[in-house]
Write a structure and sequence with these properties.
This protein has about 550 residues and is of the alpha+beta class. The protein is built from 18 helices and 12 strands.
Length: about 550
């Protein structure tokens, strides 16, 4: 015997309910993210309800499934799913994650009068009870609307999600609502068969939306709750660089300070792996005392603090990373270490020289030892002068202003021309204006030129060229070069025994360049080339 069209649709409806129930079970077994349990309830209630409607229709074909029964069945099934739906949305989006039994009761109470909506159908007239039912229906429609809004807005807001993902997820309850409400008019105008067909096709669409959300867009692979929860952890006005990453170490949120200082788009960095943004993963950062980052102020040192991000069930959702700028502190600590070594090593050596020569002079047995004493005293004086200069550079509060780098270089070069009779050639523009820390720039320029003159055999060349953003000062000398171990020491930022004031001069150069957020490079290939990049801090 041939199966009627209505029966065929009822069988399809039965299969649809089974598929929905299976997806609910699979979701429960597979994921453990915020919102999983209420989402399973939402899907499973819909699936079991469809199975029940289909089985009842198939088992009792004479059962009156006309306008008086069909519409209440579809609408009631939709109403039952709204509390799980809004609970899922609140947890999934991170809007409110601490859902308790009291929360569920508070959400359910206004909907308790919903069955009274059908008293007009049962009693044939509109009563106060049906009005209460209508108010509950409006409440449930409000939950549907709010839930869809939160899902779509959150999907649009967070870079690791897509707007399409939020829209598809919202289609499931919206499709159910629309098809259930229009079943009664369809029955009245077209009859039972088309109504059953339309309802079935609508629920197939609802099932497809759920399936696409779970398996195409991976709804629970990376939930937006981590971004919302992390947002509450971030102190918005902090000067620290703040990041929120999920379990896959994708950037979910970052504060304005991080975006501005790293010169990245606040939205463009969302969804990117943390290692692509700061050059290190969470595991890498955990093993660092400080991390060096290139910022809008140049290379800076940051102290990292990592915290686990969990929900109310202590499930790890990701991490928050706070980076505090400790460049000035690092400079002070480095200065203390180096100057301490200078005082212990160089002063001790020079005092020993003075003492031994003085003893010889006291015996009256040798000539020329007075000159050695004077030379050692001069070295001590120069050492003290260098130490004092370094202390002033590092300790002085940073203040920026307009500086003509070209005029500054010409002035320093002019004052240093007479040193050692070495030829000093200049190639600088008439004007090179930047906004920078003047005192640090003066110290760096003096150190680079004077050190070059002290090493050079016959010639020192100084050039100043524009770069983006700022200018590049290059000092080249034809001397024997700086010992590689000294260059490595300065580059690494660690101290070794300093044998003479040139060592302090290199430290002064390094610290001064760091002070105005510049970049220093030293090339010892044949000739010593010192390159100082002076950024324009107004750009």
């Amino acid at each position: 015997m041939a199966i009627g069209l209505a029966t065929a649709f009822q069988l399809v409806l039965l299969c649809t309910g089974v598929v929905l129930s299976a997806m609910g079970y699979h979701t429960y077994r597979t994921w453990d993210q915020p919102g999983t349990v209420p989402f399973v309830a939402f899907v499973s209630i819909t699936g079991i309800g469809l199975v029940g409607i289909a089985v009842a229709s198939l088992a009792a074909p004479t059962f009156d499934i006309g306008g008086h029964i069909w519409s209440p069945l579809g609408i009631s099934l939709w109403a039952l799913t709204m509390i799980p739906w809004i609970t899922f949305v609140l947890q999934y989006t991170g809007t409110y994650t601490r859902i308790t039994r009291r929360t569920i009761v508070a959400l359910t109470l206004p909907a308790a009068a919903f069955p009274l909506l059908f008293t007009s159908i049962w009693f044939g007239e509109r009563t106060i009870l049906s009005i209460l039912g209508s108010l509950s229906a409006l409440y449930l429609i409000g939950l549907l609307t709010i839930g869809c809004y939160l899902v779509v807005r959150t999907s649009y807001r967070y870079g690791h999600l897509t707007l399409r993902q939020g829209v598809v997820l919202s289609l499931a309850p919206v499709t159910h609502f629309i098809i259930a409400n229009f079943s009664s008019p369809i029955i009245e105008s077209l009859g039972e068969g088309p109504a059953v067909g339309m309802f079935t096709l609508g629920m197939v669409g609802c099932t497809a939306a759920v399936g696409a959300s779970l398996y195409r867009y991976e709804t629970f692979q990376s939930t937006p709750a981590v971004g919302r929860i992390g947002e509450r952890v971030i102190v918005r006005q902090t000067e620290d660089l703040m990041f929120v990453v999920d379990e896959e170490e994708r950037v979910i949120r970052l504060n304005r300070t991080a975006a501005d200082r790293l010169d990245v788009s606040k939205t463009g960095a969302l969804g990117e792996e943390l290692s692509e943004v700061i050059g290190a993963s969470i595991d890498d950062v955990e093993g660092m005392e400080t991390i060096e980052l290139l910022t809008d102020e140049g290379s800076r040192q940051f102290d990292p603090v990592i915290s686990r991000l969990t929900d109310q069930h202590d499930r790890e959702l990701g991490h928050t990373l706070s980076l505090h700028d400790v460049t000035e502190l690092e400079l002070r600590e480095q200065r203390l270490e180096v100057l301490n070594r200078v005082l212990r090593h160089n002063l001790r050596n020079q005092i020993e020289v003075i003492k031994s020569n003085a003893e010889v002079l006291a015996d009256g047995t040798a000539d020329g030892y007075a000159d050695s004493i004077i030379e050692s005293a001069d070295r001590l004086t120069e050492l003290g002068r260098s130490a004092r200069s370094i202390d002033q550079i590092v300790s002085r509060p940073s203040t920026t202003g307009d500086v003509d780098v070209a005029a500054l270089v010409r002035e320093i070069a002019e004052n240093a021309r007479t040193q050692n009779g070495v030829e000093l050639s200049l190639s600088v523009p008439e004007e090179a204006m930047v906004v920078t820390e003047r005192h640090a720039l003066v110290a760096a320029t003096e150190s680079a030129i004077k050190n070059a003159l002290s090493r050079a055999d016959t010639e020192v060349r100084v050039t100043l060229e524009p770069i983006e953003p700022g200018h590049c000062l290059t000092v080249v000398d034809d001397g024997p070069g700086i010992p590689d171990e000294e260059i490595e020491t300065i580059s690494a930022g660690t101290e070794t025994p300093l044998q003479h004031a040139t060592g302090l001069g290199l430290w002064q150069l390094k610290w001064a360049v760091t002070k105005f957020n510049g970049e220093l490079s030293i090339d010892n290939d044949g000739r010593t080339t010192v390159e100082i990049r002076v950024p324009d801090q107004d750009r």
